[in-house]
Amino acid sequence: MLKLNVDGAVNIDGKQVGAGGIFRNHKGRWIHDFWFYVGATEGDWTELWGLHEGLMIAVRERFCPLIIESNSLKLVQAINKGVGLEANTCADSLAKMRKFAELGLHETTLVPVGLVGLFERDAEGSDSLRRTASNILS
């Protein structure tokens, strides 16, 4: 079992922002670390950058199972809150549709034809998706 601790740091004028983290084993020994300069952004986003980069490393290095810790209450609450099935149907459908695609990340800016109806239903009546998204880092 490994633990990932992530944190962000912002100077007083918000123009120098960095994030980083460390991976430790079950005995607390240092396994891997990372840090990077983010640039100018809001403080809450630095924690998210740190988590993102930490998770990318964890996937690459196959660091699992993994415990994640952060001192950002907003980030922890957003992760622990989760979403209901209704708010996750488009993402679930994408994952199922793409599981036989070529390896690697695939992105698009258009709604896939098979998800148009589902996406429209979400946009028309599912405010739980919008509420959940607006709660993250707000």
From TrEMBL:
GO molecular function, one term: RNA-DNA hybrid ribonuclease activity
Pfam family, one: RVT_3
Residue ranges of domain RNase H type-1 in the record: 5-81
InterPro entries noted in UniProt: RNase_H-like, RNase_H-like_dom_plant, RNaseH-like_sf, RNaseH_domain, RNaseH_sf
SUPFAM superfamilies: Ribonuclease H-like (SSF53098)
Name assigned to this protein: Ribonuclease H domain
Organism: Dillenia turbinata
